[in-house]
Design a protein that fits this description.
The protein is an alpha/beta fold. Helices cover 27% and strands 27% of the residues. It is built from five helices and seven strands. The longest helix has 14 residues. The model has no long low-confidence stretch (mean pLDDT 88).
């Protein structure tokens, strides 16, 4: 697994062993950063269900000021710490080694939020609601949700901008709107 663009381009990262985490395919990551743009200068990035942290490291590679990662799996947390150290970006990350539901109430606001929850567990609607109710997405911000099935979403405060399919994964792009 390696970074696909930016200042860390080509750098290899470690990923947790086992089946508890599922890395986002490189094609999906490239598409996501094509949407957001290569330059995330000064942006704050939130990565929910972080796994190895590759999305956060991709964002930092492209100029994001900070990345906040939420991951409860101990192996994955160790992996994130190892990857941050290898890239020399420990000062730019904040890591919440806990369940996403517990972490949500502790977070501030972000320009870009990415969530890759376990597929087919009903996380999508819960996350959309929490992001709006807790005001986690800045005005003009983008929320990306990766899911394993084609779903329909309706959440005041967020507008589905696009839905894309990459293999068995769907990437939903939501924009913040006045509710």
């Amino acid at each position: 697994m390696q970074i696909t663009g930016g200042s860390f381009r080509g750098r290899k990262l470690t990923s947790p062993k086992g089946t508890e985490t599922r890395p986002s395919p490189s094609r999906l990551r490239e598409a996501l950063f094509s949407i957001v743009g290569q330059n995330l200068e000064g942006k704050e990035f939130l990565d929910l269900f972080s796994g190895s942290g590759i999305l956060s490291f991709e964002a930092l590679s492209r100029g994001a000021e900070t990345a906040t990662l939420v991951e409860q799996d101990r192996k994955a947390v160790k992996c994130i710490q190892t990857n941050a150290k290898a890239l020399g970006c420990e000062e730019q990350i904040t890591l919440y080694p806990m369940d996403v539901q517990k972490a949500l109430g502790r977070l501030s606001t972000f320009d870009v939020i990415y969530a890759d929850p376990p597929y087919k567990k009903g996380w999508g609607p819960k996350l959309l609601q929490a992001i709006v109710e807790l005001g986690l997405l800045k005005e003009g911000g983008i929320f990306f949700l990766e899911e394993g099935e084609d779903l329909e979403f309706d959440q005041p405060g967020l507008r589905l901008n696009k839905k894309r399919q990459y293999g068995s994964s769907y990437l939903y792009e939501f924009l913040s709107v006045a509710s």
